[in-house]
Design goal:
Order of helices and strands of chain A: EHEHHEHEEEEHEHEHEHEEHHH
Number of strands of chain A: 12
InterPro entries (chains A, B): ICDH/IPMDH, IsoCit/isopropylmalate_DH_CS, IsoPropMal-DH-like_dom
Bound molecules: 3-isopropylmalic acid
CATH class of the largest domain in chain A: Alpha Beta
Pfam family, one (chains A, B): Iso_dh
Cofactor (chains A, B): Mn(2+); Mg(2+)
Oligomer: homodimer
Keywords (chains A, B): Manganese, Metal-binding, NAD, Oxidoreductase
Distance between the termini of chain A: 22 Å
Strand order of the largest sheet of chain A: 2-1-3-12-11-4-5-10-8-9
Number of helices of chain A: 11
Radius of gyration of chain A: 20 Å
Largest sheet of chain A: 10 strands, mixed
Largest interface: A-B, 64 and 65 residues
Protein name (chains A, B): 3-isopropylmalate dehydrogenase
Strand content of chain A: 15-25%
């Protein structure tokens, strides 16, 4: 039995999560889902972001499926720091996994890249760096104001995510890992990342490695996304690079992510990269593919590789059959995907 | 008379700088150029990066024209921190100006973007943020190692670069400024940037404004680069975004930059965004356009707007006339540009 906590959230969150659940129910016989009401709506109603009791309950699940939280009227940081990052940190989800594929049938924005040619995964560190919340300010709202943000990096945190990246690469066909950082400017953290990378690489002589500065990687993701297999990088760089990777493979409507605690000491969390998209919420036209692909990552993490593969195959068929210009209906896509995944 | 310090540097640096000087000599009658030997070659030979005496001499010039410095055998940070960033900080070059245009004749990588449609300028902060060099490490090379990098942001530093961005927008046709930051995670620095932006915006009711998170901006630079006019952002975000902007407008072979001290208290510095490209150095095939466009920014900064416009027109003609597949010769391109700029 898989005990899944479902945080549908705001905007299109509930619409796409409903489809992901349809697909999960189709491929796994014994999903026990519990819904948690978290996000902008709850915050507006009650002022609560993530009560401790809810955090404790969430910890008792095998995985969390999240739609999207937020709306433009919530002040920046409230839900990000109080809910999303809180969960990533509390559940030690140090592997933020973001695969990008240019699926056959999807028209990407790059003229010279053909479907099937891009198949990369970014292993983004999820519990350190500039996301640590180590910042502050003095003399606020005066001409003397100073504000700081500190990037905290530990050998412990860096090594474990790099090890995860190499482990993933060794299970993939191309067996290549690219480290992305900015060692020429961020010399202290950069050196820690580079030395740790080299040490782990030495244990994997069969895996090809390369290093790129983050600015160069941002450029190459646009000009030659085909060159990447596994990319490992820090929390903030990973945030930016994965949106570029999503953009060149057809947009965040298709981008899945997993916030993973590989040891399973805590539940991992799976969510589409897209946000709550208030502009199209309630119209039934959001693309549920990113949520469904996130559910596939969830299945993979819980050991149901075969079910995950069937969901991915359903998505591949769905995308290959899309006719440009035809508006999709969220529900119908979910129905098709669920049907295909069990066929 | 314009006193220009020339740092040709390493690799293709001298090759492209020679063309930029040709063009400068053609449009300005009285350029007095002094060459400074700085970069990887000098470091290998003497161990010196930037002697104090050279820094003092550079300060006596009206502007600095730089080619590219570095080679793969110099440890990361030596030339970046010791030379490039040292100059940006010592000369208070707080406006790092990086225009991107998709020039007619240039085939960008984006299928749905036509030449002429992209014309943006990133105003990247140049003297603060994560580039401040405020980091350190403890327990190096042990399992307990921790490394930090601190982003330092002052109202002083943030306000002056935002003011510069609005001033530039008010001289452009579309009159729009986009602030890019990550206010939802970097809440302290983000709040300083956002409040300062709003305060300056209130003084410019005629200028359209928008805010985007850096991950969203990275994505939109790929999917809709046409939407940007002036983008203002911090030092690290600007580093990454300008490489994306370069990628979508034909590559860093065409990307110019100026490290500007707008008040003229210190010399400003102009350099192509590309590096020393050791792989093609010495072959006479480097594209000098980025260096020549950097020279145009230099002319603009020194008040020679008309000459700058002529150089830009020469570049436009050059790019429009290029035949795909024909290898360009650095010297010949320089000759053509110089001839066209005076015609
Ligand atoms: C919402 C925000 C905190 C988050 C992040 O920056 O990690 C988002 O951009 C993402 O990529 O998941
Ligand atoms: C070489 C490096 C220090 C520099 C930077 O990061 O600013 C470069 O990438 C640039 O963009 O000018």
């Amino acid at each position: 039995m898989a005990r899944i906590a479902v945080v549908a959230g705001d905007g299109i969150g509930p619409e796409v999560v409903a489809q992901a659940r349809k697909v999960l129910d189709a491929v796994l016989p014994d999903v026990q889902a519990t819904e948690y009401d978290l996000g902008a709506a709850r915050w507006h109603r009650t002022g609560e972001v993530l009560p401790d009791s809810v955090l404790t309950e969430l910890a008792g699940h095998d995985a969390i499926l999240l739609g999207a939280v937020g709306d433009p009227t919530v002040p920046p940081g409230v839900l990000e720091r109080g809910l999303l990052l809180k969960l990533r940190f509390a559940f030690d989800q140090y592997v933020n996994l973001r695969p990008s594929r240019l699926w056959p049938g999807v028209a990407g924005p790059l003229g010279n890249v053909k479907p099937g040619e891009v198949d990369l995964v970014v292993v983004r560190e999820g519990t350190e760096g500039l996301y640590a919340g180590a910042g502050g300010s003095l003399h606020r709202d005066t001409p003397a104001e100073v504000a700081t943000e500190e990037s905290l990096n530990t050998r412990h945190g860096v090594e474990r995510v790099i090890r995860d990246a190499f482990a993933r690469a060794s299970r993939r066909e191309r067996r290549k890992v690219t480290l992305v950082h900015k060692t020429n400017v961020l010399t202290h953290a950069g050196s820690l990342w580079a030395r740790t990378f080299d040490a782990v690489a030495a244990e994997h002589p069969d895996i090809e490695t390369e290093y790129q500065h983050v600015d160069a990687a941002a450029m190459f993701l646009v000009t030659q996304p085909q060159r990447y297999d596994v990319v490992v990088t820090d929390n903030l760089f990973g945030d930016i690079l994965t949106d570029i990777a999503a953009a060149v493979t057809g947009g965040i409507g298709l981008a899945a992510s997993g916030c993973i605690n590989p040891e399973g000491a805590y539940p991992s969390m799976f969510e589409p990269v897209h946000g709550s998209a208030p502009d199209i919420a309630g119209q039934g036209i959001a693309d549920p593919v990113a949520a469904v692909l996130s559910a596939a990552l969830l299945l993979e993490q819980l050991g149901h590789s075969e079910s995950a593969a069937r969901v991915n195959a359903a998505v591949a068929a769905e995308l290959a059959s899309r006719v440009p210009g035809v508006t999709l209906r969220t529900e119908e896509v979910g129905d098709r995907l669920a049907a295909h995944a069990v066929a």
